[in-house]
Amino acid sequence: MTPEERAERHLLVVDDDDRIRTLLKEFLARAGFRVSAAADAAHADRLTGAMDFDLLVLDVMMPGEDGFSFTRRLRARGGEAGRTPILMLTARDQTSDRIEGLTHGADDYLAKPFEPRELLLRIESILRRSTPKPSGPRALSLGACAFEPERGELTRDGEPIRLTEAEVALLRRLAKAAHAPVDRLELARDTVDATGRAVDVQVTRLRRKIEPDPKNPRYLQTVRGIGYRLAPD
Predict the structure, then answer these.
(1) CA triplet 132, 140, 149: central angle to 5 degrees?
(2) Is residue 134 part of a domain?
(3) For residues 68 and 90, is the Cβ–Cβ distance under 8 A?
(4) Which domain holds residue 37?
(5) In total, how many domains does the chain have?
(6) Do 120 and 29 contact (CB within 8 A), yes or no?
(7) β-pair partners for 10
(8) Mean pLDDT per segment of 10 residues, for the chain of length 233 residues?
(9) Domain final position from 129, 157, 175
(10) Inter-helix orientation angle 197-210/165-176, to 10°
């Protein structure tokens, strides 16, 4: 995969071992992927419910719900989340375990310990076999935050930030004209208040989610006499 292709793919690493989870996240991020992490199935459940991922790197043996059970439940969920490719990791290298993982819907299975290079090659192989992502706008960097217009996702340091539908629509419109001012009343056309007051409220809320200092916005700027401008890095 090219660096550009890797940069468009978002992976979720799920492992209860803090050291392994951190090492995997750092290794895959250095390889060029966008990477989020979860310490257990419950955390992974919340993340997959809030965001779309291109692949899960999932540990089998975890406290609480194990990887087999989580995979089975994710596949039963259906939709985009239910179709997410899964690479299982486990310290158990028994044939019966590999069969069980594949039976529950895993796409591949890698026993610990493993070579990082092999993990990377297996991930790329799965991604090549999976349905290609539709082309679209890439994520915009907003300091510690990133906004992906195609998916309507806002994250901070890889963790999702909840947006209302109105906030997603506003950010998408501003992202489409990034660095250029957009008329306030034009933005108001899609709101319930044509005067623009609803837009002002949404901008205030978004600044609290995006800006390090909402009172002195760096990324969601006011353009006097016109409206607002999104100024990504």
Answers:
(1) 55
(2) no
(3) no
(4) 3-129
(5) 2
(6) no
(7) 34
(8) 85 92 93 92 87 90 87 84 87 64 78 88 89 59 91 90 88 88 83 76 94 95 92 91
(9) 129
(10) 90
pLDDT on residue 104: 67
The pLDDT score that the predictor gives to residue 135 is 45
Flag whether 110 is in a domain.
yes
Q: What is the pTM of this model?
A: 0.57
Domain identity same for 68 and 120: yes
Longest Cα–Cα distance in the chain? 68
Question: Quick check: 59 and 67 in contact, CB under 8 A?
Answer: yes
pLDDT for position 136: 46
**DSSP bridge pairs for 56:** 12, 86
pLDDT for 98 equals 63
Whether residues 112 and 167 share a domain: the answer is no
Say which residue the tokens 């510690």 belong to: 144
CA distances from 111 to 79, 102, 115, 127, 134 (A): 29, 13, 10, 19, 32
Task: Examine the fold and report which residue of 110, 129, 148 is the final residue of a domain before the chain moves on.
Answer: 129
d(CA 78, CA 200): 37
